[in-house]
Amino acid sequence: MRVLIDYRPALRERSGSGEYTHQLVKALLASTFETNEARALDVTLFSSSWKDRLTPTPDVSRAAIVDRRVPVRLLNLAWHRLGWPPAEWLAGGTFEVVHSPHPLLLPARHAAQVITIHDLNFLTHPERTRAEIRRDYAALARGHAHRADAVLVPSAYTAGEVERLLGVPRERLAICPPGAPDWIPRSAPPKDGYVLFFSTLEPRKNVGGLLDAYERVIARDGLKIVPELILAGKATDAARGWLDRIERPPLRGFVRHIGYVDTADRRALLEGARLLVQPSFDEGFGMAVLDAMAVGVPIVAADRGSLPEVLDGAGLLVDPNQPADIAHAIGRLLDDDGLVLSCVEKGLARARAFRWDDTARRVYMTYLTAIERRRARTPART
């Protein structure tokens, strides 16, 4: 089975979708699929950029590489709006599957077309998006999802949203959650660790609500030492106000932004945290939560989106619109060692339920289904 995967989200700084894409490719290349229809998997990674070149890491070096010096914006405009050029033509080969890691199709002549929808924030809150995501995703996602031979989603929550908002039948959706990293859990939470927020600084992550909550933590009676709040993630244009705010009292000296954290440094960052706070208004999955559980970090998370599904009782859930609730939950985990231990044990057990080899198997089976759907809707050649 020849598969072309658009690797561009993983080309530079790998945030959620980029990390998912990279780890999925790694798992597909490492897996042996034992099914009645098992076929050898031949993976080609596609990239296009005017200045950034695709240099594969050793764990995906078995894949073939197609790296075109074409500006990303120009190619996306042609693909999204014109449906041209076909991916097979641009990649210089034939494929049975072309896989887009975002909601819009890769144009193809004969290959089955698979897309991944991580979340529908671009549809429910277009004001929180920018550039081509604002220009194209909301307008085109419904049509592309209905033309796709299969749609991958990371959670049951996202599957329900795609069915509800885009009208895609449930049988066309494949739930393929990410796997937990194969990290050895830390021995114990650090007594002098920090409170960690680990995500891109953008409106849907509720950074403002978290800062409101942390002002309450700072002002709380009976807390001898207030841990530092670390904001770890790339700052978007919308983050300017939050970054200015943490330089002024009462947050000054208690909150620090460290920017994007490279993949190789994420485990160390999590190991130093007393707890992770993920107060997002909406998450399609929430990979930072899964990573934290795998290390043994207790979690405070919003009771919205996919987070209750991912945690499944392994952390504290709060109303993201209520800073007092967020502050109270943070305080509970700072004060109650027994609660911390319970959350850690449940989180470690929950993390073990997510495996990349299982994700790869699900995606592989979805590819087979997509190929059959493509054949069923393509007139036979004479």
Percent of residues in helices = 25-40%
List the secondary-structure elements in sequence, H or E.
EHEEHHEEHHEHEEHEHEHEHEHEHHH
**What is the strand arrangement across the widest sheet?**
3-2-1-4-5-6-7
Tell me the distance between the termini: 23 Å
Continuous helix count? 14
Structural class: alpha/beta
At the fourth level of CATH, the homologous superfamily of the largest domain is Glycogen Phosphorylase B
Tell me, briefly, the overall form: globular
* Tally of distinct domains: 2
Number of strands: 13
What do the pLDDT scores average to? 93
Protein described:
By secondary structure, the chain is an alpha/beta fold. The chain has 2 domains: 2-179 and 355-377, Glycogen Phosphorylase B (Rossmann fold), CATH 3.40.50; 194-351, Rossmann fold (3-Layer(aba) Sandwich), CATH 3.40.50. It has 14 helices and 13 strands. The strands form 2 sheets. The chain has a 7-stranded parallel beta sheet with strand order 3-2-1-4-5-6-7. A 6-stranded parallel beta sheet has the order 10-9-8-11-12-13, with helices on both faces. Helix 10 (287-295) crosses helix 13.
